[in-house]
């Protein structure tokens, strides 16, 4: 198995963006923060962009909470700096509108009910805005390393698809249809349109009521100027992700579902020619007495049971057997991934007895990420 | 269905949610088996297109069609359905507006893509609408087609929004048929026939999300069901040994003597130190788990054991039995 060299990755000044992706609940955010701290400790100027609203992460970095602009984290060792921020997707969307239209038009858009539901609750906005924020941070040139933690999507691939899907929608045929009559001047314009279009609008009116269509139409008309830029930006960010300065880290837990998602993601990144750095498997069970196998310790515990003495040692042996059994199973799962993806470098992080609560906790995780070799290997 | 009393007699829609990684699909499947035990007919529904149910029951990916996936103890049956949003929307247009052809045309224009991805309220009302239709569906003899429906729902963070469709839809459409449809769906979800179960692990974040989720859900007027603590590790050490391990005060000489007596002569000293350290870690984790467990004051609570060898179909039956033993079905 190829070992993923985390320090080589973060020490390489050409690495400008690291994207952490994977299924929900695998420790993406903690991984991103630990990587950020380690890179800062080693002299990089880092910003970590997270989408996880959990306050625990902010607190572990000494802040009460994170918001939409980068906050400096105190306690970095060395010359580097660490900043952290949490994506506020509505705020980010509003800012784009404000930056790309005159105040009156911006006001009109921001007050539109369709825009409001689009910007606050639609699946895909978060992914799109994460991309947008990443683009902004990159263009600002204020950091030499940006670490992004991707949204907890239904499916890890949503992250790659959502920006394009949204761009497709905003630039799509349907929107153009909606837009065209307004441009051509109301009723007159409508006539030029095929019967197909009126069937579509009739259906939508029938199902959703006329108001929604009106809202969408007003929104689209007002949004027209901001529009063109949207697809272009989505494409630019997509290109940025493909550039050699970007590295994707796929994060997984040693569970079949998480590793299956990881495999999908690896395949997808390969087919899109995205720069995949490797796989991080979090929360691996391990033991410093790996020479004492599960079978041997169980047998020893049974011997003690039969003799009827040393109950403490017997239960400690059972505890150890359980740990070894779990470690063996996780090792098998990791092995399956490795044989299916022999070229993908892997690093593992042992399970922690407690959740991370401070910078030292993050440092510990960072150290494991970078450690060479695996104790059980 | 079984004659014995359960906590959920009269409930016909069981919604199962949980933070990612807590095993909500597994628990939903086990609950479906448990509810079917004794001759019931249960539909297990998946709404997020992951095909997790097919993997659990070791069957090929499910089409948009109710299929039998398992037989429960004493003759019950579990059917499964993976709802495809696009298909469900076309079905909805056909059922309520006789607009199947229009639906196909909308697909071509990318409108379906638009409504299902861009307008989440509509997407959710289509999904919950399909589920509530299966709750209401009756056979020719007027008996309900299914005794119970179990929905493998979106994660805890999104569950209130997902189920509270009439609010979502009213943001989208002030009037109109979809609004009426939303209200109909809501009448099923808010009724005493529906409960939402939360799956959690004994870890800080999943427990916090569960508590927040219960709080949010109560505000919507939807009934909270049980909390299911998944993957709980059995106690291996006595409380005294556990406490001593936590303080780092286990008698290492005694452990060495035990190891030698068990036949592990070689490296006994080294192993004893590792075993004591592992016990200390175990004690630390157990203390954390107990702390988290104490925060879950919600009743009823069900505990499901950790399975060190991973999940298979046989384990699913064991979990179903554990749920029955504790009164969940």
UniProtKB/TrEMBL annotation, chain A:
CDD domains: ArsA. It comes from the Bacteria. Residues 15-287 form the ArsA/GET3 Anion-transporting ATPase-like domain. InterPro entries: ArsA/GET3_ATPase-like (IPR025723), ATPase_ArsA/GET3 (IPR016300), P-loop_NTPase (IPR027417). This is ArsA family ATPase. It comes from Actinocorallia aurantiaca. The lineage of its organism: Bacteria, Bacillati, Actinomycetota, Actinomycetes, Streptosporangiales.
UniProtKB/TrEMBL annotation, chain B:
Pfam families: ArsA_ATPase. InterPro entries: ArsA/GET3_ATPase-like, ATPase_ArsA/GET3, P-loop_NTPase. Residues 13-173 form the ArsA/GET3 Anion-transporting ATPase-like domain. PANTHER family: ARSENICAL PUMP-DRIVING ATPASE ARSENITE-TRANSLOCATING ATPASE (PTHR10803), ATPASE RV3679-RELATED (PTHR10803:SF31). This is ArsA-related P-loop ATPase. It comes from Actinocorallia aurantiaca. The lineage of its organism: Bacteria, Bacillati, Actinomycetota, Actinomycetes, Streptosporangiales.
């Amino acid at each position: 198995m190829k070992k993923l060299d985390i320090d080589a990755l973060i020490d390489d000044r050409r690495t400008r963006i690291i994207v952490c992706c994977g299924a929900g609940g695998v420790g993406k955010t903690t991984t991103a923060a630990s990587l950020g701290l380690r890179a800062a400790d080693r002299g990089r100027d880092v910003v970590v962009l997270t989408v996880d609203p959990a306050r625990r992460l902010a607190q572990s970095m000494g802040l009460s909470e994170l918001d939409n602009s980068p906050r400096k984290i105190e306690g970095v060792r060395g010359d580097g700096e660490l900043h952290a921020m949490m994506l506020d997707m509505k705020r980010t969307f509003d800012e784009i509108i404000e930056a790309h239209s005159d105040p009156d038009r911006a006001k009109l858009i921001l007050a539109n009910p369709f825009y409001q539901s689009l910007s606050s609750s639609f699946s895909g906005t978060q992914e799109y805005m994460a991309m947008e924020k990443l683009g902004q941070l990159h263009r600002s040139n204020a950091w030499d390393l940006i670490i992004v933690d991707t949204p907890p999507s239904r499916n890890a691939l949503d992250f790659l698809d959502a920006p394009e899907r949204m761009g497709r929608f905003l630039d799509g045929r349907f929107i153009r249809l909606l837009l065209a009559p307004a441009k051509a001047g109301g009723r007159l314009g409508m006539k030029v349109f095929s019967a197909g279009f009126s069937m579509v609008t009739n259906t939508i009116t029938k199902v959703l009521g006329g108001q929604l269509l009106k809202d969408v139409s007003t929104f689209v008309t007002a949004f027209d100027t901001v529009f063109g830029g949207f697809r272009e930006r989505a494409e630019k960010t997509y290109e940025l992700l493909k550039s050699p300065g970007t590295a994707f880290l796929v994060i997984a837990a040693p569970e079949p579902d998480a590793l299956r998602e990881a495999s999908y993601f690896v395949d997808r990144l390969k087919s899109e020619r995205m720069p995949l750095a490797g796989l991080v498997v979090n929360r691996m069970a391990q033991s410093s007495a790996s020479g004492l196998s599960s079978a041997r310790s169980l047998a020893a515990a049974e011997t003690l049971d039969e003799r009827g003495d040393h109950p403490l040692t017997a239960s400690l042996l059972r505890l150890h057997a359980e740990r070894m059994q779990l470690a063996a199973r996780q090792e098998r799962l990791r092995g399956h991934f490795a044989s299916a993806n022999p070229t993908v470098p892997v690093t593992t992080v042992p399970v922690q007895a407690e959740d991370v609560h401070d910078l030292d906790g993050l440092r510990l995780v960072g150290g494991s990420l970078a450690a060479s070799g695996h104790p059980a290997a | 269905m079984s004659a014995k009393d359960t906590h959920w007699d009269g409930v016909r829609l069981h919604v199962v949610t949980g933070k990612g990684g807590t095993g909500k699909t597994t628990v939903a499947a086990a609950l479906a088996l448990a509810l079917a035990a004794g001759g019931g007919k249960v539909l297990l529904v998946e709404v997020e297109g992951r095909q997790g149910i097919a993997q659990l029951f070791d069957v090929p990916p499910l089409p948009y069609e109710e299929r039998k996936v398992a037989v429960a103890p004493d003759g019950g049956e579990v059917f499964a359905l993976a709802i495809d949003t696009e298909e469900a929307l076309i079905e909805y247009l056909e059922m309520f507006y006789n607009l199947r052809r229009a639906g196909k045309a909308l697909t071509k224009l990318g409108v379906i893509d638009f409504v299902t991805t861009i307008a989440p309220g509509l997407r959710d009302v289509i999904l919950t609408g399909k589920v509530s239709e299966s709750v209401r569906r009756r056979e020719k003899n007027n008996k309900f087609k299914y005794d119970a429906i179990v929905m493998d729902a979106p994660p805890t963070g999104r569950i209130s929004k997902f189920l509270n469709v009439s609010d979502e839809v009213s943001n989208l459409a002030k009037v109109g048929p979809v609004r009426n449809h939303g209200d109909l769906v809501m009448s099923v979800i808010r009724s005493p026939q529906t409960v939402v179960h939360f799956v959690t692990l004994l870890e800080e974040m999943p427990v916090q999300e569960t508590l927040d989720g219960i709080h949010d859900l109560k505000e919507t007027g939807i009934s909270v069901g049980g909390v299911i603590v998944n993957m709980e590790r059995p106690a291996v050490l006595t409380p005294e040994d556990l406490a001593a391990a936590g303080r780092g005060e286990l008698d290492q000489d005694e452990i060495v003597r035990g190891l030698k007596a068990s036949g592990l002569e070689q490296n006994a000293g080294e192993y004893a130190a590792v075993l004591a350290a592992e016990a200390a870690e175990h004690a630390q984790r157990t203390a954390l788990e107990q702390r988290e467990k104490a925060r879950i004051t919600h009743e009823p609570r069900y505990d499901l054991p950790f399975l060190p060898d991973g999940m298979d179909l046989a384990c699913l039956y064991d979990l179903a039995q554990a749920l029955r033993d504790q009164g969940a079905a």
